[in-house]
UniProtKB/TrEMBL annotation:
InterPro entries xrefs: DegT/StrS_aminotransferase, PyrdxlP-dep_Trfase, PyrdxlP-dep_Trfase_major, PyrdxlP-dep_Trfase_small
Organism: Neorhizobium petrolearium
A GO MF term: transaminase activity
Keywords: Aminotransferase, Pyridoxal phosphate, Transferase
Origin: domain of life: Bacteria
Family, similarity comment: Belongs to the DegT/DnrJ/EryC1 family.
Record-given protein name: DegT/DnrJ/EryC1/StrS family aminotransferase
Amino acid sequence: MTARIFYTKPSITELEMRYAVDAVATGWGAKCYDYINRFERTFCEHLGVRYAIATSSCTGAMHMGLAALDVGPGDEVILADTNWIATAAPIVHLGATPVFVDILPDTWCLDPVQVERHITPRTKAIVATHIYGNLCDMEALLAIGERHGVAVIEDAAEALGSAINGRRAGSMGRFGTFSFHGTKTVTTGEGGMFVTNDADLYERVLTLSNHGRARGQTRQFWPDMIGFKYKMSNVQAAIGCGQLERIEELTARKRDILKIYKAKLSGISGIALNPEHEGTVNGAWMPTVVFSETWGITSEDLQKAFHAADIDARVFFHPLSSLPMFEEQRHEGNVYNVNAWSIPQRAINLPSYHDMTEDDLNRVANTLLDLLAVHDRQSRSVAGKK
């Protein structure tokens, strides 16, 4: 009997456990921030940025960053319709309006042409989400932001290990955010990171992250503004320190898995996996396969096939505009975001945890190949009857 193949799980070794135990044993009192400070410092060095703030989640990092930019009622924030709700929720919490635009058919990221078309005098920011490790066209988006005086933010929750022309995802915008959820390439169980090269923005977010208490404030328990409580624990940061020591190994394995899938599915027309365009490195957090409409294969077909093979099937993100809370923003003149609505209906995320065996990878690939063969036979049979 074969074991179930999960879509993801973390890679935790004795190193991370040793650091976590040390944090539990000694990381209190004057040492309660030791691993947090180390985690932030090491992350800055890896990413090539000046400032980092460890947070309880990527969502919290995004919330504080937007708040520090004074995003609020009457403002609009542009983002891809293909997104997890965590990217849109902070915008709504701040009283601003999320504006959903379509995605490119190959990277599944923001379409810069559609971004420019949706810029208005109320646009306060553009959130560039690097989906599944795929990269936004940052050159185009940054140019749009500069032309219109709008901040470009990187949601790099899924893009650790990805880079464009030598610049790591998350390091190019006004600020970047990362996730260390248990599903991510580098994990702290739960957790996130805010990064920036803007000293003033860093200080404001640092204050917001500690209930509004400014770093230079000498009065005890004296908040200088209303802030948040989005801090990471020292124990979580200890795990993160161990993970960062292994980051090249962890990201390389993710890339290897995507490469193996591409090799096993090569030569089949009408399917696409995470792209890696010239000048880019795809961190391959979540290998994803998208079928052309000509195959007639649906997300439901894929889920059934994987379920039968005892393999976890994770669906492509639903367009945010399809959710009931965003019904009013669903379309303009009955024109939906075509790619954001079409691609999820014929796509699936593939398992990609670090210790997948060759047999595991073969099972996943063969499940897809078998499904393709069945649909090919059915298509030929129907064509023969005409």
